[in-house]
Write a structure and sequence with these properties.
2 strands, 375 residues
């Protein structure tokens, strides 16, 4: 019996140390380590929410449900960590107090939750109880301190996503960015635009690989997403470089490089495989006809096209192979809302609707000449 009790002491110490290491990996240095236990739990949790969201018919309900996925997961993690500490300290106190395991569990709960309703008489057991109390307070404080960091990064991310709506529509679409800029005489503003998004992509690389919870924090609007927004800006830069190689700003090229580098780093952090050096002639999901349709729309607003559409498509494909498959895999992984040219969402059917608005003017109140635009 004594051997079993002392084995419980060793097991309890190992449980407490292991739980502390998991917390440190998750909340303090999450970018440096992958906790297997947390990773498996997150995988199950993500699949559970995606399964339920796939059953729910309404888009608004899907969005609200998926918005709760990560906040509830963080609360669940806190509860699991506290329960593990409760069990670990109970196993440590069991041989030290010469009591039953249930009584040791009561001591552990009294200390960890700072209740103080039951206190052991043994000095060593009392010291362990103090340590349990400090542990409970530190774990809660760490999570409380973790949340402002998350929401600060989230706020920075969503600010630019919200601004993009007036330039790219909702859901965001790359060709619309070019159409709207040239339509209102802001083509010369695109170098600054791409430079801003290059900085944003660099910030995303650091925050979303360090704090993976941010991947699952959804935008307030149902059809908005950091991922589809980034994909739209990447596509606009790729179209610009493909159709207008002499006029396209160097900032567009720099953003594409930073953009697909960011997607690759995020993919690595969640163990998504991708091709490191894809061939430029590799097939992409955007067909020649779809590309030609958007080039024709650009011509209608007098966008300065320098290449024939066939040649431009080959260059566009050469740019897009660097980020398309990664963006599609991440879109499925985080259940991003559907957007044009953003790949399928097999587990979230019913999100493919795109809202259109009529471009009415005093000269053309019916909006017949320009046709409908994406919101």
């Amino acid at each position: 019996m004594k051997i079993a009790l002392w084995l419980s002491l060793v097991l309890g110490i190992l449980i407490v140390i292991g739980n502390w290491l998991t917390i440190i990996r998750t909340l303090i240095v999450p970018g440096s380590f992958n906790s297997t236990g947390v990773g498996m739990l997150r995988k199950f949790w993500r699949r559970l929410f995606h399964f339920v969201a796939g059953i729910v018919p309404k888009n608004s309900t899907k969005h609200r449900l998926l918005s709760l996925q990560e906040p509830i997961f963080l609360i669940l993690l806190l509860g699991i960590w506290l329960v593990i500490f409760l069990l670990g300290f109970a196993l440590i106190l069991w041989p030290l107090t010469n009591s039953t395991f249930l009584k040791a569990l009561e001591y552990s709960a009294s200390g960890e939750f700072t209740l103080g309703n039951v206190v052991p008489k043994q000095d060593l057991a009392l010291f362990i109880l103090y340590f349990a109390a400090v542990t409970g307070l530190i774990v809660v404080a760490l999570l409380i301190g973790f949340l402002p960091t998350l929401y600060s990064s989230y706020s920075r991310r969503e600010r630019l996503v919200s601004i993009l709506e007036s330039r790219a529509g909702l859901p965001a679409f790359g060709p619309v960015i070019l159409i709207r800029h040239v339509s209102v005489g802001l083509l010369e503003d695109l170098p600054k635009f791409y430079s801003t998004w290059e900085d944003w992509a660099a910030d995303i690389t650091e925050t979303h690989t360090t704090y993976r919870s941010l991947l699952f924090f959804r935008s307030p609007k149902i059809q908005a997403s950091w991922l589809t927004s980034m994909l739209a800006v990447l596509d606009s830069a790729a179209i610009y470089l493909s159709c207008c190689p002499n006029r396209a700003p160097v900032q567009a090229r720099l953003f594409i490089r930073m953009g697909f580098s960011a997607l690759r780093e995020i993919a690595r952090s969640v163990d998504i495989d991708f091709e490191e050096d894809p061939m430029p002639n590799k097939p992409i999901s955007v067909t020649m006809d779809e590309f030609k349709e958007q080039v024709e729309a650009l011509k209608r607003v007098d966008f300065p096209i320098e290449r024939e559409v066939d040649q431009a498509y080959e260059h566009f494909r050469g740019w897009r192979v660097n980020y398309e498959s990664i963006a599609f895999a991440l879109a499925i992984y985080i259940a991003a809302p559907s957007a044009p040219w953003s790949g399928p969402r097999h587990h979230l059917k019913g999100q493919d609707d795109v809202n259109l608005v009529i471009n009415r003017t005093p000269e053309d109140p019916e909006g017949i000449s320009s046709g409908p635009f994406r919101l």
